[in-house]
Amino acid sequence: MWSGPIIVNSSHIFQIGIIGGSGLDDPDILEGRTERYVETPYGKPSDALILGKIKNVDCVLLARHGRQHTIMPSNVNYRANIWALREEGCTHLLVTTACGSLREEIQPGDIVIIDQFIDRTTKRSQTLYDGQPTSPPGVCHVPMAEPFCNKTREVLVEVARSLGVKCHVRGTMLTIEGPRFSSRAESLMFRQWGADVINMTTVPEVVLAKEAGLCYASIAMATDYDCWKEHEEAVSGGPEVLTVVFITLMF
């Protein structure tokens, strides 16, 4: 059940929620690692919450697509994921996402600390206020001019610089519904719109986090150029391992 004002998070104790891929499910990442399966008013999250500490900071890990990567982007229960992390006491969310680059200067392997989004999804619930008895009461029109937490973004940028990682300090993420990728005409159009990178998961995740009063920041890794640029190879790996290094150095 709903347990208080959802927009205001007055806690001064930091607890970090980390949403990413299966590469984050490593028992060596967290000290005192435990797992917890939970239910929410919106159903089950993607997988168990994995609790523990990193350098004495409480953290909660969640695999967005499930630990076996079996959940398609359109089928992720974003509302349950955000609700579960909030109810577990998380104050900040650090998330990872692989993405395609829409800009020549954002090369495969680069990191982008995104600060804006464009929403091209069509099938996803984008509010916790759905009018159901178990949901927060009333209505909510959350401001979205600054969807990402700028203070957390600044920390991520500083950590990237300390690591010598090529990092773009801002960027606009365009989220498509999927599961298909863009046509070339769409990819060229997205460039004209001002989008810098493209994925299938940032929306509605960032919207729901904002509604839930959580400080949300994303580490986006470009794995390839989107199809506006022909005959380019993808890079191997993903952002999850780098995220562990980021988090270790943040505290």
Automatic annotation (TrEMBL):
Phosphate binds at S22, R64, H65, T97, A98, T201. CDD domains: MTAP_SsMTAPII_like_MTIP (cd09010). Pfam families: PNP_UDP_1. One of its GO terms (biological process) is L-methionine salvage from methylthioadenosine. It catalyses: a purine D-ribonucleoside + phosphate = a purine nucleobase + alpha-D-ribose 1-phosphate. One of its GO terms (molecular function) is S-methyl-5-thioadenosine phosphorylase activity. Pathway: Purine metabolism; purine nucleoside salvage. Belongs to the PNP/MTAP phosphorylase family. MTAP subfamily. This is Purine nucleoside phosphorylase. It comes from Oreochromis aureus.
